């Protein structure tokens, strides 16, 4: 961990995946802004000293929080935006508003660096060229230089094929020193390697056979929408991928299988074991002692929406290195 503490304003902080990673890279939050009560409870339970502001980003005004001015880093792990052509639903419009609000907040706070994490298409797709150009023009006008890259969590030790679009806006005195993090160069664990031990915790005799079947990286874990029902591991195609690994992706379990649970590897999804919230947390790279608050669905959604801490840490170390020279 860096010896010098850099200051951080974390918005749409969620369950803290981004903040955990950045903390390990040497950043100390001056405030974390989050409107979900369960996520705020999670942040407070794990880091009582953190200044958690339970409020909507659209209502946050730095004038009321002057200690946020001139922070080293403004970081935003925002809800997933849609392209202009497909942003017909109200929650998609809300995601765009939050992205725009982050740009305006950069103008108000004037951090040395701003970090936005979102969908890969925000960085690469022509369908997002309008919002990308808005971000670039506004931030360049403020004296920032915009960098963009797609990072896959599996390049940083996370056992999951999960791609992130990352935008980094550096003030010109920092921009020439910023370098994207280098992948670890080693293959991450498979799902079986990551979860085999936990699958055996209640005496399931087939845990080793199951782990051998789950011999690949996980599909991207998704948190789902508050407007949907209970927790599951994603759309139908993703559920089929989980079934091929011996997992029932249609729900999230309360416990791992016990000694009486059968092993029917080629059976129907309902015959397969489900993953628990702590197991999904492992797949997301969260610390084993990170406590989640709320009911099962709320806890799963917090984890599913998070930026895996190891990826945030890798980006954070690159930012810390660039910010170290003044």
What this model shows, in words?
The protein has 2 domains: 6-185 and 307-324, Rossmann fold (3-Layer(aba) Sandwich), CATH 3.40.50; 191-302, no CATH class. The longest helix has 20 residues, at 90-109. The chain has helices spanning 17-24, 37-46, 90-109, 121-124, 129-141, 172-175, 191-199, 207-213, 236-244, 277-283, 296-304, 309-324; strands at 6-11, 27-34, 52-54, 73-77, 113-118, 144-152, 163-171. The protein has a 7-stranded mixed beta sheet with strand order 3-2-1-4-5-7-6, with helices on both faces. 46% of the residues are buried. It is of the alpha/beta class.
Could you give a quick summary of the protein structure above?
By secondary structure, this protein is an alpha/beta fold. Helices cover 36% and strands 14% of the residues.
């Amino acid at each position: 961990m860096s010896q010098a503490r850099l200051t951080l304003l974390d918005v749409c902080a969620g369950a803290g995946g981004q903040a955990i990673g950045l903390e390990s890279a040497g950043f100390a939050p001056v405030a974390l802004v989050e409107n979900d009560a369960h996520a705020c409870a999670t942040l407070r339970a794990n880091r009582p000293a953190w200044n958690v502001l339970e409020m909507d980003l659209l209502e946050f005004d730095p004038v009321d929080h002057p200690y946020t001015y001139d922070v080293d880093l403004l970081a935003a792990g925002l809800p997933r935006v849609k392209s202009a052509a497909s942003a017909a639903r109200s929650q998609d419009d809300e995601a765009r508003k939050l992205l725009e609000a982050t740009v305006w907040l950069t103008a108000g706070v004037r951090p040395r660096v701003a970090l936005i994490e979102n969908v890969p298409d925000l960085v690469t797709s022509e369908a997002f060229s309008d919002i990308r150009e808005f971000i670039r023009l506004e931030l360049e006008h403020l004296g920032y230089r915009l960098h963009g890259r797609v990072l896959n969590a599996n390049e940083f030790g996370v056992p999951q094929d999960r791609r992130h679009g990352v935008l980094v806006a550096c003030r010109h005195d920092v921009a020439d020193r910023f370098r994207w993090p280098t992948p670890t160069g080693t293959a991450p664990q498979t799902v079986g390697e990551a979860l085999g031990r936990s699958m055996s915790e209640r005496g399931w005799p087939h845990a080793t056979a199951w782990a051998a079947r789950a011999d690949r990286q996980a599909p991207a874990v998704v948190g789902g929408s508050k407007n949907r029902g209970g927790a599951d591991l994603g759309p139908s195609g993703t559920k089929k991928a989980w079934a091929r690994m011996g997992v029932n992706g249609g729900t999230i379990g309360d416990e791992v299988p016990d000694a009486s649970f059968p092993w029917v590897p080629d059976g129907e999804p309902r015959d397969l074991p489900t993953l628990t919230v702590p197991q999904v947390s492992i797949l997301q790279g969260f610390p084993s002692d990170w406590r989640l608050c709320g009911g099962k669905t709320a806890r799963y959604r917090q984890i599913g929406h998070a930026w895996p801490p190891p990826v945030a840490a890798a980006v954070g170390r690159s930012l810390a290195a660039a910010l170290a020279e003044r």
